[in-house]
Structure formats: structure tokens, C-alpha cells
Design a protein that fits this description.
Number of helices: 10
Number of strands: 14
Bound molecules: zinc ion
Order of helices and strands: EHHHEHEHHHHHEEEEEEEEEEEH
Strand content: 15-25%
Oligomer: single chain
Number of domains: 2
Radius of gyration: 24 Å
Helix content: 10-25%
Shape: elongated
Length: 361
């Protein structure tokens, strides 16, 4: 921000919480020491705002959830999280920003760099001397999303009537923002995020995104490979087993689809002339990959929108849909929604996640 912060405890009208005038000028490039939390949201992408949320990566969504969770811990109404998330959207676009002007910030986990004075972190708060000329806290505190959010909310609470102030009015009131509308334009996104996170539609995984926490869906061997010669339209691997073998979620995530695919009766065994996957489940994982499970026996045990844990039993092996015998048809996709274009060979996909498919046991 452009304004020098007074002591954080001072009851200045400042409310420099909003003093966040100028958008962070982050490079946008992911830094190798990015934060470790990763979240994923179950979204109906029909609303434009949900398209925006869909474009947030797992780390950005994780920061949004952290900011929301702090509002709950501090027993603040949802409006506080809307104001905070609109501010974060404007200041850093949900990236924990370091600043080369504040060398210490560069040594802490971050996902981008800003160069606005000595502002750092999600909220672009200015650190105390000697690292900066602000009053919000130490560099370590401001680069810790949870603490920076606590500081933001503490400041927000000191504004009389903050609960009913439009975001843009608040910004104007403090006369710090050169672009008072800048916060308000993020209000629909912030509101949608609060609804999603507050409604439990966001699931998070600690640890490095996409690393660890992957499991073998079934123990059986491989009957058919990904796009093998003569079956170029086979976008998965077929894993063998007997009817009723439990199928496990390859990793934690959200069920995008749990359906009878193809239009035939999925409770009957399929054939080579039966269309579709039969009983089918798609799961979206925190690293924004999707795993797909086809030809299940009976209706899956999970439903669309449900959160699942790695290894959770989601259904039973069968031969519904376009299938000539009992097996699990397993696909891996590098994006959502899953389609043939983003299907990749499950063997290297799973190997990269520490799981070797096809070995019995
Ligand atoms: Zn198959």
C-alpha cells in the first residue's frame, strides 16, 4: 500500500486494512517454495463466477480457505470473510507475495513477487522496521496467511459499522485507495467463495500438492493398456479382479460424477454392444487431476459433490456398460472436466505419485 501504517494498535480511522490501494504487481510465476496447502472445490461451472473460481489453482484456493477459516475462528460473520477475500483478490489474487525490497520475505514460502513499496503477503501489509516502514507485524507474520488474515480482521473490527459498509464505500472512507472500485469488483467472487467454503464444498489436503496420498484403486493386474495398438480409443487401463472387488479412490478429492453412463440399465451386466462406462465415478483431486472408474457393479457408494479420502471404497468391480467381462476401467486426466484430450496413461501418472499399477497384492 502507499500509505505508511501507524502502529497497528492505534485506533486510527485509517484502517489501513483497506489501505491496500495498489494491486500487487506479482509476476504470477510459481515459485519453487510455494505454500503447501492445496484445496479443490466442487463447482457447478455454469455460473460465470464459478468459472473464475475454477481458474484458481489449489494453492490459491487453499489461501482463500485459510482466510475464511480465520473469520470463523474469530467468530466473525460471513461478511467479514467477503471483505477479506475481496481485498485479497485485489491485492495479491490469492498468492502469498514476497517482495525483493524486503529480502527476508524472499526466504519464506511464496508464490509470487510484488514490488509495491515494502508490502508483502496475501493482504500486501507493510512490515515493521527494520524490514519495512509499516506497522502490521513482522515479515514472518505477514507472510503467514493465517496470521496476516488475523491482523486484517482485527483491523476490520475496529471500523464502526463495517458489517453494513459496502466494500467500495469503506475503501473510499479511508481515502487510501486510488481505485475505490477495485475491491468492489471482486465482491461476487468473494461472496461465491464464502458460500462454497462455508457450505463445505471445498476440500483441502495438507502437504505438497499432488505429492503423496495416492493409493492403488484395485490390486489386480493389467488386462489392457492405455491406447494400446488396435485400441487407440481406449483411454484407460483395465485392471483385473473378481466381481465385487472393492474399488478405492486413488486419492482424496471431490466426486465430480457418479452416474449410470451410456443410457442402458447399469444394474445388468453389459456387453460389447452396450454403450458407455456403465456405473461410473469421476473424482477431482487437489492437484486438479481427475481419476475415472468405470463398469462398476451396482450403484457407486459415493454421490456427486461428496468429498472422498484416498483409499476410500467408492464402489465394487463389475462389468456394466461397454464391457465384456469383470474388470475396473481406470483413467487418469490432467484436467477437469475429464475428456479424451486430457487423458494420460495411468501407469506413468500413478508411478509419478508413488503407485505402481498392475502388480498383484
Ligand atoms: Zn477399459
Amino acid at each position: 500500500m502507499n500509505v505508511k501504517l501507524l502502529g497497528f494498535g492505534a485506533l486510527t480511522p485509517v484502517l489501513l486494512a483497506f489501505g491496500v490501494a495498489v494491486a500487487a504487481t506479482g509476476s504470477g510465476a510459481l515459485d519453487p517454495v510455494a505454500s503447501s496447502i492445496g484445496c479443490v472445490a466442487a463447482i457447478d461451472p455454469s455460473a460465470p463466477v464459478n468459472q473464475t473460481i475454477k481458474d484458481l489453482n489449489a494453492t490459491q484456493l487453499g489461501h482463500a480457505k485459510t482466510v475464511y477459516d480465520v473469520s470463523v475462528e474469530m467468530k466473525l460473520p460471513p461478511r467479514a470473510a467477503v471483505v477479506a477475500l475481496a481485498t485479497v483478490a485485489q491485492e495479491s489474487y490469492f498468492k502469498n507475495m514476497a517482495n525483493p525490497t524486503v529480502p527476508k520475505s524472499m526466504t519464506l514460502p511464496h508464490e509470487g513477487q510484488g514490488a509495491d513499496h515494502d508490502s508483502v503477503g496475501l493482504f500486501q501489509q507493510r512490515p515493521l522496521p527494520p524490514d519495512g516502514e509499516g506497522g502490521w507485524g513482522t515479515v514472518e507474520e505477514l507472510m503467514t496467511p493465517k496470521i496476516s488474515a488475523m491482523k486484517f480482521y482485527s483491523a476490520l473490527k475496529r471500523i464502526d459499522g463495517w458489517e453494513t459498509l459496502p466494500i467500495t464505500v469503506a475503501a473510499q472512507k479511508v481515502q487510501i485507495s486510488a481505485f475505490p472500485d477495485a475491491y468492489a469488483k471482486h465482491e461476487p467472487l468473494a461472496t461465491a467463495l464464502v458460500a462454497l467454503i462455508g457450505g463445505g464444498a471445498v476440500t483441502c489436503q495438507n502437504g505438497a500438492v499432488g505429492a503423496g496420498g495416492w493409493a492403488k484403486p484395485v490390486p489386480g493386474g493389467i488386462n489392457s493398456y492405455f491406447r494400446e495398438p488396435g485400441r487407440e480409443d481406449h483411454y484407460g487401463v483395465d485392471l483385473g479382479g473378481t466381481r465385487g472387488t472393492p474399488i478405492h479412490a486413488a486419492s482424496s478429492g471431490i466426486v465430480l460424477i457418479a452416474e449410470c453412463n451410456g443410457g442402458s440399465n447399469c444394474d445388468e451386466d453389459g456387453s460389447m454392444s452396450t454403450p458407455g462406462y456403465g456405473w461410473k465415478v469421476d473424482i477431482l483431486h487437489p492437484d486438479r487431476t481427475v481419476t475415472r472408474y468405470g463398469h462398476m457393479w451396482r450403484q457407486p457408494f459415493v454421490r456427486t459433490g461428496q468429498t472422498v479420502q484416498a483409499g476410500q471404497v467408492i464402489g465394487l468391480m463389475g462389468t456394466s456398460g461397454n464391457s465384456s467381462g469383470v474388470h475396473l476401467h481406470f483413467e487418469t486426466h490432467t484436467g477437469a472436466p475429464a475428456n479424451n484430450a486430457n487423458a494420460v496413461d495411468p501407469l506413468p501418472f500413478m508411478a509419478a505419485r508413488g503407485v505402481t499399477l498392475g502388480k498383484s497384492g
